[in-house]
Amino acid sequence: MPKVTVHRKAHFNSAHRLYRKDWSDEKNFEVFNKCSNPNFHGHNYELIVSLTGAIDKETGYVYDLGILSSLIKLHIEENFDHKNLNIEVEEFKNLNPTAENISVVIYDKLRKHIPNHLELEITLYETPRNFVTYSG
Ligand SMILES: Nc1nc2c(c(=O)[nH]1)N=C([C@H](O)[C@H](O)COP(=O)(O)OP(=O)(O)OP(=O)(O)O)CN2
Ligand SMILES: [Zn+2]
Questions:
Q1: Which residues form the signal peptide (predicted)?
Q2: What domain range is 34 assigned to?
């Protein structure tokens, strides 16, 4: 049975600040540099959600990309788009919103809505040149 991967792209624009509350501004600047600016900065995040599995004999689908698009809109875009991640998104109130941590949060939010037999991979571009992947 061949396994095929389907991908859906999405995007959201968010502000964030990389820092630790228990460090001084100086120490945060030493480690996170300009990304620790106390006044925040923003990114146009590009997200790719990938599902791998067998092709369903009846539908010819691995998974309906229309349903995947709706899941991403409901669970990711509505929570993250045009938000300050540190202040407005519960998951990052005590978690540094690095691309690594954001991709794990996205994975955890989507995993529970995706059938168990499908593998899920998150690819998150923070800038056109900085991106991370996470697959659980
Ligand atoms: N491992 C990680 N490193 C960095 C992260 C991250 O999430 N994980 N994030 C940042 C900052 O958010 C920063 O804002 C990224 O912007 P920048 O350094 O300007 O990235 P560019 O790709 O635009 O930079 P160029 O060097 O001009 O290509 C930093 N590191
Ligand atoms: Zn940043």
A1: none
A2: 3-134
